Amino acid sequence: MADIEDLTPQCVDSTSHRVSPLVLPFLRPCRSPSRPAPSRAKSTPTNLLSRQFRQPSTKDAKFLVLFGSQTGTTEAFAKTFAAFARSRGMETRLLPMSEYVSSAASAGGVVKALAKESHVFIMVSTFYNGEFPDNAISFWHELEKVNPALAAQQLKNITVSVFGLGNKSNKDNFNLAARRLEARLWELKVTELVPAAYGDEASTTGHEGGFRPFCKSVWQKFGNATTAIASLPVSVRVTAAAEGAPASESRVQATHSLLEGFKSVSVKEHKLLTKAGYEKEIRLVSLETGDYPLVGHILIAAPNPSALVARVFKLLLLPGGFTLSSTVTVTPVDGGKPLTATLEDILTHHVDLNGLATRSFLEALSVVGQDPKEKESLLDTAEGMEDGNAYAKLTMGEVFSFVDAMEKYSSAKLTLEQLLSTVPSLQPRYYSIASSPLVSPGVADLVYIKETWSTRSNPAKHFNGLATGYMCGLKAGDKIAVRVQPGPINVPAPETPVVAIGLGTGIGVMRGLLQHWSALRDQGKKTSTINLFYGFRDPAKDYVFEEELAQFEKKGVCKLEIAAMDKGTLITDNIAKSSAVSTIFENKGVYIYTGPGGIVPGVVEQSVQESISNARGLHPQAAAAELAELKSDVPGQANRWNVEAFTREVDVENLLKDYSAKAETEKPLANVFEGSKMLCFQCEQTFQAKGCTTIGVCGKTPEVAALQDLLVDCVKRLGWYNHQIRQLAGSKQSAVTPELDAAIKLRDSDRFTLLSLFSTLTNVNFDPDSIRDYIVGTRNHVTERCKLYQDLCKVTGQKEEQCPIRDLSGTITDPAILAEKGKLVGVLAKFRTVKNDVVVGLSEMLVYGLKGVAAYADHAVLMGEEDIRIFDFVNEALAFTISPDVNDLNKVIGMLLKCGEANLITMETLHKGNAKHGTQSPHVVPIAPSPGKAILISGHDMKYLEELLEQTKGTGINIYTHGEMLPAHGYPKLREYGNLVGHYGVAWQRQSIEFPHFPGPIVMTTNCLTPPKEDLKHRIFMAGAVGFPGCPVVKKFNYSEVIKMAQDMPGFSEADKEYTYPRDPFGKVAKTYNVGFGLETILSVAPTVIDSIGKGDITRFYVIGGCDGFEGERSYYTDVMENLPPTSVVLTLGCGKYRILGDKLQYATIGNTGIPRLLDMGQCNDTYGAVQVAVTLAKHFNCGVNDLPLNLVISWFEQKAIAVLLTLLHLNIKGVRVGPRAPAFIRPAALQFLVETFDLKLTGNAIDDVRQMVGATA
Question: What are the residue ranges of helices labelled H in 439-545?
């Protein structure tokens, strides 16, 4: 068996990996019978400093979609994209790359043909070894050989965009074919319509996690991102066959006669290799194939079971009188060979009915669905990408095929044409040959494992894969449709030293190689002795070919080392301890791996590196360099590194995870992320807890990420000048003139610094033009402050110092060009330069903490509250980040704690500002509509709410709060307006679900914006630092446009008794919220609280809250709340409160005091109040805060939470629990320091954490 594409292991028919929506079956023949030697094209560094993008016109919206696909998965995605494009009115052609190369010959070659196109989209997958698919090789070679300067001139008027499909388990080879194409197109100076995107099969959302944003970015370029598909596009037409038209006669003929290169062969033998009763049966089947290549492949076309065919037949919308024996003709819409066959033959041999129902298929069903609830459920399931989403629940650990989906959503009936256009064609499965043509001429052996599994929902029921079930039923004499072709392994010359690793059924390939070597020796020829490392599970159960291998070793054909996983031995240990491995490579030997895919090949590779290091006493990095050279191509020499990876085996991966973790931690981050389009890991939500490298999980594009990096760099220069000015003026005050002194005391540039940093927070500003404006504004302030610094140096006689970093932005105003400059100063550039991941990570933590401080300080500034200590620290810290001291770990930690101190001052300042609306007081907030026109306001900024209430006073427009604006109801002066009527929705992450149901305009005042849907953008207004392309902006608190829109929209009616948005399935349902328990309110009842402690009515306090993340199913904080003792008091704040509001403690009271046990203190910045409450209690009990019966359980998401955490560390508050996972920018060594120094704890199992916290009471 062999994993041909790095994205979908086709050798085992695991339905969890079939992704082929909206395909056009029968259009393309299968690959040519003979595959040329694999082409490992040289990788070009993806330095995209001159990348160009173009804004297209709908007038030239002609699409050419080219695909390179080995097993059909990529072809299916290409067809999906083409179908979606056609549904939006785009003139679209779809071709495999090889066919385009053939047709381009008459036009003078590929480049000349491409020059006549308009918008070209290339979709390509990658072999495990980084190879191009068969039908992409010729296209790649054509691009390789062209003259770059000439091609650049010819291709200047077209755009090309690349989408790759890969599997990150394959590490260095992840999407290598797509990345090579992208790099070559860059060399040819081709303009991109949209940035390249990469699908990752290993991610929780699969390839669609990359594919859907890629498609949306294309549709957005043409202004129709949300165009609904009114009818399901079809790629084929089905008609009743003409009378007398021949139909297929047998299942074998129906299969191989229509697939190029297939033939009917006989089964000679079929036997069980493992011990009887062993659940993981390994079988051998011998096929009379005729000639076959050593270590080649056999493709087997497995049919759908008759029971499955019968199920789908009952679900289809068919003309009256149609039966399974009816003969039909299927004709591709875009041309191609028609197919005439019985309906039974088509459903049996040509449609992958057993494949996983993809998101795109569910979206297609929603188009034809008749039941409104089913339609909405289908769309929600198709679109939800958050952790624990509905689609994941249907598919993870479950069998959910296309037929299952059709049965589940019974109102969505498909015609035969629609079925054939939306369900992928049935692909053959690949099996590796396990015999030698010298030993078994004309009869090829295959070794396969009988894949059997149970589902999470029904462990008692067992399932087989499609091909497995078919293969297991074969017996001697049966006919089977097959195709024989070469495999990816380069067979070495017989005398070449070989390191061979065969794991599981991978031993079959090695058996064929050993048979061949043995036969050559029998012919008197010289061969090397193959060093074979064979790993299996249990020697008593699955040690297959044991006697044969012993004979090979006795004959000198191999030297065998074995390991039995279930017995506690790992083959990686054998490899790491072997000195022979290093010796073989020193003697120009080759490496051959056959076995499970996923992380296993990389882990085995790590053990090879360890072997080289151990045998020769090399540093791991030196050994890694030698290994990299071994894996590289040498002109005129066959590849020395061969990997044929099958499907993943999770249990094997779990046992090898220690090796995997070691490999990851030893690899510098600069290497891990090298070649990425971006690197952003400033929030908790960052991709796979490592970093966003192609597009932000938040929706941030690489362009926006680069612009934000450049803005931060510009702000550091501004901070440096302001710090120098204040330092110099303070030391030379007597020499400062009154004019200079007045200029020094101006704080405009400080305020602009705050706003600029605020704009780079997570979920604040997605607008390239807006960020460009901040860059230009910062640049102008730098110019002014630089001049002031120079003047100050002159009057004080001080030598002028140069800013440590130069201005990269110059006079540039084009966001695209500025973004290219931003790539030079991002965090990845720092990792390359400093070479100390711990220091870089902690210095980035300082930058993120500064962003949080800036956000809080900007809120305070709007409320008329400032503290120069905040301004001075921000400037000092910004200057520190570009000084040599930033590479000193101790000094970085000292500055982090100082940032925490500054944030405490900032939160106190903001507290004073918000108190201008009156001291918070308890209030019950309704969660229901009030009749009348409506405006929704979200975010944190109370000033924007106050201005909105003022301007809508007397208009009849009601104001609703959203997200972290909920605490506004606790301020008496805001409640006095009378039209602050209630709260709408829950936390920020459900905007896309809740906002469409709000019958009025929406105002976003601060962070927590998610990219709005296209049809909502016109009524979501941006305010302050917030920005998104295409959304209107509230300027200088002028709400006139918002008010006019509210008056024109329906608002809520008398009939509206509750909100219509779907309820959060993971949250707590509450009809009201209790707010207003701020610092002053709690301190006013301090004597009562202290008395309740004495009575035993309160045993422990918990602060639970913070900034919440995107995952809907994140239940840790809810579970903690639900399992606290009834004598607990919980203080909550921030948007994390929505995980626990609605719980029983919200309505319970402390004894008979009437004081709720769940007290909402306000926004995340109101952590200040929680700290002051703790300090007050500590003073009363004459103890330290750490001695109080108090636990802090904080949810972090973005940079404000980082600032809060630094404040807690500054105050030396120990035992803070932070979750749900560690920040990606904090490396393990740095995290260990924080754990040891501050007793910082990461959240774990909720029940266990509660037990530990409650136990602290005793």
Answer: 466-472, 507-522
Q: How does pLDDT run across 400-443, given as a tens digit for each residue? A: 889 999 999 999 999 999 999 888 788 788 899 999 999 999 99
CA distance 740 to 789: 10
Q: 923-1048: what CATH class?
A: alpha beta
Q: How far apart are CA 775 and CA 755, in angstroms?
A: 11
Is the CATH number 1.20.1270.20 carried by domain 687-915?
yes
Q: What is the dihedral of CA 1215, 1219, 1225, 1230, to 10 degrees?
A: 20
Task: Write out the two tokens for 700.
Answer: 């941030």
- Inter-helix orientation angle 73-87/208-221, to 10°: 30
Q: What span, in angstroms and rounded, lies between the C-alpha atoms of 117 and 67?
A: 16
785/792 Cα distance (integer angstroms): 10
For 1075-1254, CATH number out of 3.30.360.10, 3.40.50.2000, 3.40.50.2030, 3.10.150.10 equals: 3.40.50.2030
What is the DSSP secondary structure assignment for residue 966, as one 8-state letter?
G
How much of the chain exceeds pLDDT 90, in percent? Answer: 45
Residues 6+ apart with CB under 8 A from 439: 515, 516, 518, 519
pLDDT for the residue 890? 87
As a CATH number, domain 62-222 is: 3.40.50.360
Collect all residues with Cβ–Cβ distance below 8 Å to 389 and sequence separation of at least 6: 381, 1112, 1113
pLDDT interval class at 26 (50, 70, 90): very low
Give the number of other CB atoms < 10 A from CB of residue 581.
Answer: 26
Residues 6+ apart with CB under 8 A from 458: none
Please say whether the beta carbons of 649 and 542 come within 8 A. Answer: no
Joined together, the tokens standing for residue 1150 give 């402390």
The arrangement of strands across the sheet holding 1158-1162 comes to 1158-1162, 1128-1133, 1100-1106, 1190-1195, 1217-1219, 1241-1242
**Which ranges in 676-747 belong to alpha helices (H)?**
702-731, 738-745
| DSSP string across 1070-1115 | -SEEEE---HHHHHHTHHHHHHHHHHTS--EEEEEEE---S-TT--
Q: Which of 1079, 963, 1092, 1074 is nearest to 1026 (CA)?
A: 963
Domain extents in the chain:
62-222, 236-430, 498-659, 687-915, 923-1048, 1075-1254
Closest to 127 in 3D by CA, of 181, 167, 97, 162: 167
Please provide the CATH number assigned to the domain covering 498-659. Answer: 3.40.50.80
**Burial of residue 1200, with CB atoms counted within 10 A of its CB: 0-12 exposed, 13-18 middle, 19 or more buried:** buried
Token code pair at residue 59 = 């007038």
Residue among 190, 117, 141 at smallest CA distance from 37: 141
Q: Which residues pair with 1162 in a beta bridge?
A: 1133
What is the secondary structure of 996-1036 as a DSSP string? GG-SS-EEE-SS---PPPTTTGGGEEEETT-B-TT--EE-T
What phi, psi does 1019 have (nearest 5°)?
Answer: -120, 15
Q: What is the DSSP letter of 1138?
A: G
Q: What is the dihedral of CA 486, 491, 494, 497, to 10 degrees?
A: -160
**236-430 and 498-659 in the same fold:** no
Average of per-residue pLDDT across 595-610: 86
Nearest to 643 by CA among 178, 173, 32: 173
HSE on the CB side for 923, CA within 13 Å?
A: 24
Phi then psi for 220, rounded to 5 degrees? -60, -35
Q: Burial of 412 by CB count in 10 Å (0-12 exposed, 13-18 middle, 19+ buried)?
A: buried
Alpha carbon dihedral 644, 647, 650, 654, in 10-degree steps, equals: 10
Percent of the chain scoring above 70 in pLDDT: 84
In the prediction, which pLDDT does 877 show?
A: 97
Could you give the 3-state DSSP secondary structure of residue 749?
A: helix
Q: Does domain 236-430 have CATH number 1.20.990.10?
A: yes
